[in-house]
């Protein structure tokens, strides 16, 4: 009997719920386990996904679990019991867009600190799950959806790197590819991009207070020909990103990115994608993904070291000066000043251990 792959989705919030809904409708050949802190909420969301899938005559195998990521040993036991092929983390202590609920002047000031200012709350649960995976000894691939441009490098410095992230550069690549196809009046399948970019590029024109100027790399091919010189790539990227509606509607597209990565990690065949945080690297890259894992796939005119340095410089526009080899995160001076001014949060740098103590 052939092995039926399984996926564990941890955190059934906005992105996690979309992943659950899409998987329920699109792939009944995967055993799906959805887990969160409150079991009744998970069960209700699973019911919604199953009932929706029934309209398409899909009846997926979905199981609900209660999980507390702060209980490391119990989480490791759950992972050992389930033996999932892929684990997807969608759990965070605080969603990135909660500051939008503040008065406009306060939101704008906090936003200008960069999302890296909120790295501790984005990192904590992703770290706990990574630690549980290591403790369990299972060989599952780990997809981390929580600000993976920045959290994955911290986890790498701790020796527990995720396989891949989702969204961010994937959202940009999809939009640029679509816009190029429209401009050139060719099918989207005829457009191929190779990009190196960071989360900060995704938010620069969507959120208040971000500075322009973060470096990136972009190569555009149409019908097999290099057409990069026909475009102002910065203007193209800006216009492409602004194709998305404001707010959090893009969460559904982020979920699609997660499902693409999940499918690739379950596939014998290599799949070419764009994604952040492959094997714990900072920022986003073109990646070859398969059940063997992730491999950065750059054109000949840019080295991996050059690509990494692009993203390390870009992260300074997102509030992070450095993530050092000891997993210490150093904030940018402007980020330190803003967080102290608005929230009286006076922190120059932190390690995950210090944050948790």
How would you characterize the overall build of this protein?
It is built from 13 helices and 14 strands. The chain is α/β, with parallel strands linked by helices. Among the domains are: 160 residues, NAD(P)-binding Rossmann-like Domain (Rossmann fold); 28 residues, no CATH class. The strands form four sheets. It has a five-stranded parallel sheet, with helices on both faces. A three-stranded antiparallel sheet has the order 6-7-8. Strands 9-10-11 form a three-stranded antiparallel sheet.
Task: Provide a compact summary of the structure.
The chain has 357 residues and is α/β, with parallel strands linked by helices. 41% of the residues lie in helices and 18% in strands.
Instruction: Please indicate the percent range of residues in DSSP E strands (runs of 2 or more).
Output: 15-25%
Estimated structural class:
alpha/beta
Task: Tell me the CATH architecture of the domain at 6-165.
Answer: 3-Layer(aba) Sandwich
Kindly state the number of beta strands.
14
- The rounded Rg comes to 20 Å
Q: How confident is the prediction overall: mean pLDDT?
A: 96
Distance between the termini: 48 Å
Tell me the series of helices and strands, N- to C-terminal.
EHEHEHEHHEHHEHEEHHEEEHEEHEH
Oligomer designation: single chain
Give the C-level CATH assignment of the domain at 6-165.
Answer: Alpha Beta
Low-confidence stretches: none
The CATH topology annotation of the domain at 6-165 reads as Rossmann fold
Give the biggest sheet.
5 strands, parallel
How many separate helices? Answer: 13
Helix content: 40-55%
Q: Which strand order spans the largest sheet, edge to edge or round the barrel?
A: 3-2-1-4-5
């Amino acid at each position: 009997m052939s092995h039926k792959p399984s996926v564990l989705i941890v955190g059934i919030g906005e992105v996690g719920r979309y992943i659950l809904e899409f998987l329920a409708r699109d792939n009944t050949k995967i055993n799906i386990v959805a887990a969160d802190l409150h079991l009744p909420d998970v069960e209700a969301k699973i019911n919604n996904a199953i009932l929706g899938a029934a309209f398409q005559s899909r009846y997926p195998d979905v199981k609900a679990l209660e999980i507390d990521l702060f209980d490391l040993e119990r989480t490791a036991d759950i992972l050992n019991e389930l033996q999932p092929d892929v684990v997807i983390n969608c759990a965070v202590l605080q969603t990135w867009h909660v500051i939008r609920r503040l008065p406009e002047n306060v939101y704008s000031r906090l936003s200008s600190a960069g999302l890296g200012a909120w790295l501790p709350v984005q990192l904590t649960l992703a770290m706990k799950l990574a630690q549980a995976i290591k403790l369990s000894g299972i060989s599952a691939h780990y997809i981390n959806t929580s600000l993976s441009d920045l959290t994955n490098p911290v986890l790498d410095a701790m020796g527990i790197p995720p396989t891949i992230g989702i969204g961010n550069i994937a959202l940009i690549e999809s939009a640029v590819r679509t816009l190029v196809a429209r401009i050139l009046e060719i099918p989207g399948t005829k457009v191929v991009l190779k990009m190196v970019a960071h989360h900060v590029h995704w938010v620069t024109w969507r959120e208040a207070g971000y500075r322009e100027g973060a470096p990136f790399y972009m190569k555009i091919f149409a019908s097999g020909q290099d057409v990069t010189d026909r475009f102002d790539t910065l203007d193209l990227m800006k216009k492409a990103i602004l194709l998305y509606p404001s707010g959090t509607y893009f969460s559904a597209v982020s979920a699609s990115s997660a499902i693409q990565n999940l499918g690739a990690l379950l596939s014998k065949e290599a799949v070419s994608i764009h994604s952040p945080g492959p094997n714990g690297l900072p920022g986003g890259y073109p990646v070859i993904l398969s059940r063997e894992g992730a491999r950065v796939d750059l054109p000949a005119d840019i080295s991996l070291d050059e690509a990494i340095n692009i993203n390390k410089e870009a992260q300074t526009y997102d509030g992070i000066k450095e993530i050092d080899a000891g997993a210490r995160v150093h904030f940018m001076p402007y980020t330190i000043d803003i967080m102290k001014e608005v929230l009286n949060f006076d922190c120059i740098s932190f390690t995950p251990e210090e944050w948790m103590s």
